[in-house]
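Reminder: ligand-aware prediction takes two inputs, not one.
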Amino acid sequence: MPKKYPKHSLAFIGAGYVGLVSGTCLAEIGHTVILVDNNPDKVAKLKAGGIPIFEPGLKELVKKNVKARRLSFTTSLKAAVDKSDIIFIAVNTPPQPDGKADLSYVAAAAREIAEVADAYKVVVDKSTVPVQTGERVAETIRRYSRKNVDFDIVSNPEFLREGSAIEDFLKPDRIVVGVANKRAEKVMREIYAPIKAPFIVTDVKSAELIKHASNSFLAMKISFTNALARLCELSGANIDKVAHGMGLDERIGTHFLRAGVGYGGSCFPKDVAAFITIAKELGYDFALLKEVERINERAKALFLQKIEAALWVTKHKSLAVWGLAFKANTDDMRNAPAIDILERLHADGATISAYDPEATETARAVLGKKIKYKKDKYAALKGADALVILTDWDEFKKPDWSKVRRLLNSPIIIDGRNMYDPKEMEKRGFVYHSVGRG
Ligand code: NAD
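Here is what comes back for the chain with nicotinamide-adenine-dinucleotide:
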């Protein structure tokens, strides 16, 4: 870490996953950060020392930086903009029914900044937005600026992953900054000075494109692996071995080659859908990505078929479920594969008792009374006709197998995350189904 670097006053508009984590981490490296959110409940909770999301290590880091007076929260965008030279936009960009990104929150934030800013500001877009959004944000600020103030627009996409967000932010693979001039580049270099990572400077449009391209590529890797898993099932091969053999080729890489129930979460489904529409509007049919989506839907459907095949009839069957969140170490249920899978099983007449270490409340908000929520993994198993695994939390890795065997009505496990060795499971007396393994 360089000993001396300029400290800046930063405002973050949006105190969600990205705003809260990035803002807190930038406070941690010495900047003064004000987080603005127009959800008063969220701000009240943060002010009272609470954290609206589950993210390992975040609570402690927020507490530390609030105490050091480098981090504060407000609902007043004006108060935050007045005190800051650099304004990060970290609002949500949810999908519309046709897959297009809803940019109304970004537009509203840009307009609000314009209306209150009375001196030069660097406006940094951290939300995931379609290429050319920077131009629109600049236009909006020019249109609504009361005082005709000078500003620079920067694209600084965020690559953190929920569940390891702090580590990802402070030790990233790269920092991408899209700028139109040296003045903005200098400020961005200063903000990130203590973070050791390749610092990629591009034009604004290229930076915007890097984010959608990266997420779409990663989703493609997952779908490719799930398609291969199906081929493995049809041919008697084993996806774990195939992925291992492929991944050691440095050009391919070992990450994101795990078969399962398909990708979910707040980013991949939304970003792939948005990228398809972005390409279409630019005049390119990105058919490859449509297939990525199709394979992903099929991964869920095939998993449901596995459950049905294992149980013969799902109606009146009792199912235990381990894991609801879209992945481990998060309470995020946005687009979790569990939603489609469990809604379907519920519609088919199955009774579902589920346990997730962190996502009970977020799942309840989506699935309501369609499932029963249990306080520990063993409680979910009592009298169930099968155990279904949907999220690979660490605490599911080595359960007390004799207890699992005893509590289940019949020893059937359908594992959507390939957590266990099929041979070991057979030895333990289970009828074990997983994805893409013969
Ligand atoms: P989020 O929904 O958790 O948070 C967005 C916050 O912005 C909300 O708290 C909302 O109340 C607030 N907000 C909206 N409009 C506002 C306004 N005008 N003024 C003040 N506050 C406002 O969303 P998120 O998951 O943090 O994602 C934010 C952006 O970052 C999205 O574009 C997303 O695609 C991108 N992103 C997300 C992740 C991730 O893992 N969640 C990772 C990388 C990038």
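Residues 204-235 form the longest helix (32 residues). The domain at 217-433 is CATH 3.40.50.720 (Rossmann fold). We will return to this case in the review session.
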